[in-house]
Automatic annotation (TrEMBL):
It holds the Pfam family Phage_GPD. This is Gp5/Type VI secretion system Vgr protein OB-fold domain-containing protein. Residues 360-433 form the Gp5/Type VI secretion system Vgr protein OB-fold domain. Coiled coil: none annotated. InterPro entries: Gp5/Vgr_OB, Vgr_OB-fold_dom_sf. SUPFAM superfamilies: gp5 N-terminal domain-like (SSF69255), Phage tail proteins (SSF69279).
Amino acid sequence: MAQAVETVFEIDGMKIEQFSSLRLSQGIYAHHFFRLECPVETVDENEHTLFNGSRNLIGAPVQIKVTSEPDRSDFLFRGIITQIDAVRHNGHPGNIIISGYSPTILLDNGPHCCSWERQSLKSLVTNLLESFSGDWLKRSIAPAYNETIHYIVQYKETAWQFISRLAGAVGEWLYYDGKQLVLAPPKGRKVTITYGAALSRFELGVQLKPGNREVLAYNYVNNEVFKSEVGNSNGYNNELGVYALEKSAELFKPQPKTWLSHFVKSKQQVDNLMNAQAAIQRSDVVRLNGWSDLPGFQPGDSLTIKMPGSDRAVGDFRVISIEHSWDGTGNYANEFVAIPASLKTPPVKQVPEPYCESQSAIVIENYDDGELGRVRVRFHWMTEKERSPWLRMTMPHAGNDAGMFMLPEIGAEVMVSFIGGNAARPFVIGAVYNGKAKVRFGNAGNDNKVIQTRSGINITMNDKEGSIKVEDKKGNHVQFDGEGKVTMNANDKMELACGEAKIILDKNGTIQICGKKIKVEATNEIKITSKDNTNITAETLVEVESAMIKLN
C-alpha cells in the first residue's frame, strides 16, 4: 500500500521537480542514507556531456520535506550529497543518481587518537564535537549517564565510531532525528497509527534471550574484587515482555561467570555498567516490524498501534529504524522496526573496543603519593595537554613494605602494554634505550651487568672476571676482584665504625683508631716504624712485658 504525498527534494535551495525514485534509510546508531534517481536534464543543462553541472552538487546540502494532508503528518530530513553517478543506457541520455548521508557522516573523517581524563560523557562528547562544523551538524547532547569517566581513549577510531562505542557501552540513545544529532533519552513526537488504515501490515515478535550472569572486576587501588549479579529486569511493563524474560531465566542455566577488565572504583559502578549491558541485550525481546504509508515519524518517535473500530491499543512502541521509499509518481511507503516505548535502553550492536598494541611513551611524572610505585606517561600521539593516568609498573618483586623500587626518570622512554588490549588500561612493562639515551656498559662478551642511577651511583658485575664494583658519583668505591682481593677506596676520608669503636683514614695519610679497648695481637711479629717521632702516652700506666726487652 502506498499513499500520494507531497515531497520536496531540495539541493542547496534548488528543487528537483522530477525524479523516478527516492529512498531514505534511517536508524539509531547509524548514518542515514538517501538515494535519488532523476532524469539527467533535471540537473545537467547539456545532457550530452557527463557531469556538466551535476558535479557541482557534490558536498551540497540536501533537504527532504514530506507533507501528507489527509493525515496532517510530515517530516523533514537534512543531509549532504557525497556521491553522483551518471547512468547511460541504450543510447538514451539516462539518469543521474544522487546519494548521500546525514551530516553524521562527517564524523567518519578518519581514524584518530586522543584521550580524556576525568570527564562526564556529556562534556567529553561536547568537547569532541567542537572541532566539527556546527552549521552542518546541529546537536543535542544530554545523556542520562552522568558518572565521571576515569580515563578513556579514542584509539584509531573515527569520531563516530568512538561516540557510538561510548554511548553503546552505557545504553544511551544515539540517533539523527533528521535535523540534529541526539545523544539523550528520546523526546520525539507521538504518533497514533491504525492497523488496516495507514498501517497495512505488522509483525509483533517475542524471543528468548539469556540474561542472568555473574560478573567480577578488580580494583587494584583497594586490592578488592567486586562481584555483581546481573538479573533479568529490563523495564518491560507489558505481559509479553515479562513472560519472555521469566522464561529466559528458567531455561538459560547454569548462570555464566565473566571477568570485566575495565577500571572500576566500586561495586556500584560494576552493577550499573553490567545492568546497562544486560538491558541492551534484552531490549529487543519484544520487537515490532511494520509497513505503512504514513510519513510522519522517524527514529526516536513513539508509535501507538491501534486496531480498527476499537480504542484498544496493541501497545506503545519506539521507532529504532525506518526505510522510506517513493516512486516516480509521488507514492510513498515505509517499513519500520520498533521496540516497546517503556524501555529506556535501545538495542545496540556493541562496537568492539579497538585493539591497542604495545608501544613506547615518555615519563612525565614519577612521584606517586599513593605509594603504589606508579608513573604518568605521554604517548607519542598525545598533545602537550594530554597525559595518561597514574600507571602501575611491573617490578621483579613487589609486596607490602618489600620488593624492588626503581622508577624511570622523567623524560625516560618506557614500553607500555595494555590489559586485554584496551587502550584505556595501560601499564608500564619496562624502560628502553634510544638514540639520545644510549648505554655504554656493553661489550662483545656481554660480561657486564650494571645498575646505575641518575647521579652516577654504579654497581658493576663482571662475569668474565667474577668481580663486583660498587661506586658512588665521586669515584669512591669498593671492589671485589674475583681473585680474593677486596679494595676499598675513598677520595677524602674513610671511616669504619662499630658502636664506640672507630677507625678513620683521611686523604692526608692520617689513621685514627678509637675505642675503649684496643688490642693488637700477632702470632709472629708486630713491627712499628716511624721516620720521625713515636709517642706512647698513658694517663696512668704504661706496661711493657716480654721475655726480653731491648732498647736502643
